[in-house]
Every structure is written in structure tokens, then in C-alpha cells.
Design a protein that fits this description.
It contains two helices and nine strands, in the order ββααβββββββ. The protein has about 170 residues and is mostly beta strands. Strand 7 and strand 8 form a beta hairpin.
Length: about 170
């Protein structure tokens, strides 16, 4: 009568390897007027600077499942750190992103909860999100977002030719 789920991951990658210069300097200067004024662009050959990343996360969940219905909960965690490749202006800061997210979910359903209903489903979730932009080692812009979402569905018994849910 009990179902469970566990998973996790870890990923660590170096800078992206490429077959030439990271920046096509003539195209960059044509596209961005600020670069046109720079006599020298910082460029790498064979890799894209600051493109390395590290991420980890996982999910744990458990549900009770029986004849009348089910009820379960899960938590999911994600942590991600990655770089933003530079555009080549000498002295520009090294920009990195730190991202953290935790999500909590609850779901439940019951068959025949009362006379005119075939099924009642309930879903509720909460997400805690944070995203920080670091410039060199200094904390730059920070985004945070807490979200709540919920849904209640009631599937009714047929009303003449009509089947549906509210």
C-alpha cells in the first residue's frame, strides 16, 4: 500500500571545448558597437571561458495507495552553479550564477467521496527559489520567488448525457 521514489544526480563539467576562437571578433564588433571601440578583445582559443558548471539535486516522495484512493508527498531539491561566457571586453567581471530551488508537492485523490461525485483530486505545491548573480566574487543581483499552486478537481457522475468535472 506504500509507493516511494528516490532519485538524485550530480554533474560537474569543465569549460566547453571548441575547435577555434571563442569569439568571432569581426562579427562581434559588427554586432555590438561597444566592442567596435575596443582595440583588443580578450579571447580564448579551443575553449569557451567561464562555461564550466556544477549541478546537483534529487527527489524523495512517498504515497499511500489503497482501494478508496491515494495520498502522497514529495520534495525536490536543485542546486546549480554555472558561468556566463564573457563577451571579450578587457577587465569585464567574471559572472557566475548560483541557483537554489526546493519544491514541495502534495497530491491526493479519493473515489466516491460523496453521492454525486465519482472522484475528488487535490494538488498543492510550494516552491522556494533563489538565484544570485555574482560578479567576480561580489554578490550582484539576487532574485527570490516563493510560489504556491493548488488545484481541486471534482469529477461528477453523469448528468444525463453530460460527464465532466469542476
Amino acid at each position: 500500500d506504500v509507493a516511494y521514489h528516490l532519485d538524485g544526480f550530480y554533474r560537474n563539467s569543465g569549460n566547453a571545448i571548441i575547435g577555434g576562437p571563442a569569439i568571432d571578433e569581426s562579427a562581434a564588433r559588427e554586432y555590438d558597437p561597444a566592442l567596435a571601440a575596443e582595440p583588443y578583445l580578450q579571447n580564448t582559443y579551443g575553449y569557451i571561458a567561464n562555461s564550466n558548471a556544477r549541478a546537483q539535486g534529487g527527489t524523495a516522495g512517498m504515497s499511500w495507495v489503497g482501494d478508496p484512493g491515494y495520498a502522497g508527498a514529495a520534495v525536490n531539491y536543485l542546486e546549480n552553479h554555472y558561468g556566463i561566457p564573457p563577451i571579450g571586453i578587457p577587465g569585464e567581471p567574471n559572472v557566475r550564477i548560483g541557483l537554489w530551488q526546493t519544491k514541495y508537492d502534495f497530491r491526493g485523490g479519493i473515489d466516491k467521496p460523496f453521492e454525486f461525485a465519482e472522484r475528488l483530486n487535490v494538488k498543492f505545491g510550494y516552491t522556494d527559489y533563489k538565484h544570485i548573480e555574482y560578479e567576480d566574487s561580489e554578490t550582484g543581483t539576487t532574485w527570490t520567488n516563493d510560489t504556491y499552486e493548488g488545484r481541486i478537481e471534482l469529477q461528477h457522475e453523469p448528468l444525463g448525457p453530460f460527464k465532466g468535472q469542476w
